[in-house]
Amino acid sequence: MALRNVITEGDPALRRKSREVGEVTDRIREILGDMVDTMRESNGVGLAGPQIGIMRRLFVAEPNPEADPPVVYYMIDPEIYEEEGSEIDDEGCLSVPGLIGTVERPERIRIRAKDLNGELQDYEFEGFEARIMCHEYDHLNGILYIDKATDVREPSYEEDEEELEDEVELEETE
What we know:
Elements: H1 26-41, E1 46-48, E2 58-61, E3 73-84, E4 87-93, E5 96-105, E6 108-114, E7 120-126, H2 127-140, H3 145-148, E8 150-153, H4 157-173
Antiparallel strand pairs: 1-2, 2-3, 3-6, 4-5, 5-8, 6-7
């Protein structure tokens, strides 16, 4: 697999609506593999086609990279068809480096997408996983989280420390 360049805010590709993939080919699977490698190398939990200049409706997500084994979701021509509830939390984005913002997202979603074999799958996500899927889905429509966010800012030292403490607590419970 190969690493791809992640384009950043200001690049017009991030503001365009993506086209359907249609048939899942070996080339599409190769791109998705590159996307997983790029996402992991960048310490992200999701990456959409437009973020690497691929204007197709596809994204990858790995909500818990520390899981053993890790679970990667491959979403090809996804459609969010049900949303429920509301949660407000901070988000960041590989295409908007160095900033976070507070975004309201659905608490639970149902999404339908083709998998790596081109088979249609139905998924239900809640909480953080739903947030990731909605964030990546927005990329396919030319929407960045900063378009929906309030309080866009650089992470403060306290937020960095809080995140570090959460990671230490997670390691201690394993």
